[in-house]
Amino acid sequence: MRIAIDGSSIGQDPSGARTRFVQLLRAYASLDAHHDVVVFAPPRAELEAEFAGRSIECVRVRPAPPPWRRALRPRGYWDQRLRAVRADVFQAETLPVPRTSVCPLTLTLHDLRDLEPGSPWSRRLFAHVALAKQLRRVARVVAVSEFTARQVRERLGVAAERVTVVQNAPDADLRRVTDAGELQRVRERWGLPSRFVLALGHLEQRKGLDRLVIAMGELHVRDGMHQVGLVLAGHDREGIGPRLETAAHAFGVRLVRTGGVTDAERSSLLSLASVLAIPSRVEGFGIVPLEAMKVGVPVVYARESALPETIGDAGVGVDADDATEFADALARVLQDDALRADLIERGDRRVAGASWQESARELHRVWSEVGAS
Predict the structure, then answer these.
(1) Model's pTM, two decimal places?
(2) Distant-in-sequence, close-in-space partners of 293: CB < 8 Å, separation ≥ 6
(3) Tens of pLDDT along 171-204?
(4) Which of 3.30.470.20, 3.90.550.10, 3.40.630.30, 3.40.50.2000 would CATH assign to domain 180-352?
C-alpha cells in the first residue's frame, strides 16, 4: 500500500506541526512493518534532508497557498498528483480538506481554534459554515489528543468510529544542553536575564501573552521578584510584539523577544529557563511542555484546553483568564525548591511514557484500515 502525504503546508521554521510531521514519519519509517510513504514536499521546508536515509520518497510541490486559494483548487489538482504516485491513501495535514476522487482521505487535526473567538473572521466563518460538511469527505480524522477528538465528535458531529487519536511526543533528538560555552553564547546573543520565564512559540493573540505580561507585572510589584525576566521566543506572526513590550515596560518587567529560533537555540533556551509558561486557552496538544519536561524545566499552564491531558500532574495548571492565579503559580515554582524538584521528577516520568514509535504504530493501523475499506 502507498500512502501519499501532503507536506506542502510544512514550513522550515520550528513549530509543533513540523515537529510532529518529521518525528512521526521518521518513527513510521523505522517500523518493522510499514507502508510505502510519499511526501509532497515544498523545497524550502527541506524535508528531503529530514528524511534522508529513510524509506520515504519526497516529491517536490509548491508551498501551500493561503487557505482560501486552497479551497478553490479544482479536484484535478490533487487527482493528477495522486495518480502519478499511485496513492492508495491520501493523508492531509491542514484545512481546508483537499478534494480528490482517487483514493480515501485521512486528515490530521491539531485543534479547532478556528471555531474560537479571536481567530481571523474569515477562518471563523469558514469553520462555522463549512467545516462539518468538509469533514464528511474524510474517511478518518486523526486527532492529536483526546481533547481534540472529543471536540470533533461533539461540536462537529463526526461519528466516533471516524476519529482516531494519534498523540504527539517530544522531539526524539532533544537533550538538555550542558555545554557552558553554548549556553553563554545564547545568553549573550539576546542579553538574557539570569532567571527568566520562557514562553516558546509564535506570538499570536490566542496565546494569552497579554495575561502573562500582567502576571509577570504582579511578580515584580507584589512579590518583589525584579530579577526574573520574561523571554518570548517565536515569530511575531500578528504584530503584537510592540504592544507586549509597552505593557511590560509599564510594569517594569524586563522583556526579551528573540524572534524565530533554530532547534539548537530552542534547546538552549529551554535549558536556561527557570519556568516554561503556557497561558494559551486554545491548545490541541502541546509538544513544547513535553520538551520542557524532557530537559527538566517546570511548567505553569492554562488548564482550559488539551494541556491537562498532555501534562497531567507534572505541571501547575491555572485559570487562563486569571493573571493573579498565574502570578501565584509562577511565584511558587520560582521560590519553592521542593515543589520544583517534585515537578521535574513528575515531568520526567510523564515524558517517559510518550513515544513516537507507539504513535507511528497507531497511524499504521489507521492507514491499513482506511486503505482496505
Answers:
(1) 0.91
(2) 170, 299, 311, 314, 315, 344, 347, 348, 350, 351
(3) 878 899 999 999 999 999 999 999 999 999 999 8
(4) 3.40.50.2000
